[in-house]
């Protein structure tokens, strides 16, 4: 087997690569950005872990999403919480529609994206805006999957004795009512929540 020697990139190419790596290094903070959810072993999960499982859900349900641009959906899932690399996570029970969180997270995303080449920065911000507005089919699904993944983690996690499992039953219902697949998954998540509540009550 023979190998060809790679050509040295041009100055412009080197600069572009370096800027992308700078962004990737900054986004690494998501690995240390902790959420209120607990893993099955009882430690706090990271935003990066939540995002990974959200993307896994998308891949596994691809066959049920015939009319959806699954690549676009995956992109939205990957970037939906990127701003938390700067601002951190706000626990689901503490979120409200008028807390200014969306504007703050968008500004944090713009700060994070300054490292990127302009074309990539524009794409990332546009995908984040699409998710925030939740109007396209892909954004609707990303929002719904996001809520369901959170609910499933609440059930899976080894939580504190005073954990409020009943919170799941009302959480994100507007988002999970917007697509037949989401509604079916919501039923399963609600059933798991109710079973966990019964289990906890019996201990």
UniProtKB/TrEMBL annotation:
InterPro entries: HD_domain, YfbR/HDDC2. Keywords: Hydrolase, Metal-binding. Residues 27-179 form the HD domain. Pfam families: HD_3 (PF13023). Coiled coil: none annotated. Signal peptide: none annotated. This is HD domain-containing protein.
